[in-house]
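Posting for a labmate who doesn't have an account.
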Amino acid sequence: MNAKKDEPNWGHPTKSQARQDTTRAERISGIVWLSIGALFGLFISVLYIGSRITVGDTLVPLPWTILFAFFFNRAVTKTALLWTDNKLVAGIPALVWLAGYLLAVMWPELPFGEATLMPQTVWSMLLFVVGMAAAAWPLRPQFSLEPLK
């Protein structure tokens, strides 16, 4: 493999690119594992969204899972971009996270669902907004500020 020809930006500190020396099966399995990771991150976020700490005699909400979802979803999407240049394919883990979130919200209304999985609070809505924004941010179009030659 000729690194200069196959991966021209290899090792560049500000330019990232998808690896070119992987097979299609490796890229698919990478996206699948990132999608499973996105569901795991959602599971942690839903499980601990009602976290509270005691300050004196008062219980104070501590929605740390919103920050967790921000950093985790952003990392998952940026990692997906290392597996493929196609932003639609790189967005699959974000779409899996979205589908999992919607399933958790609609669970009580489903015929087989009984218990509420996602509390109906402002924190849950903020989790959705922050989680999706963080996952979508690396997928936005990027324009160079360098002048055209």
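Reply:
Got it, the structure tokens are right above this. The first strand starts at residue 52 and ends at 55.
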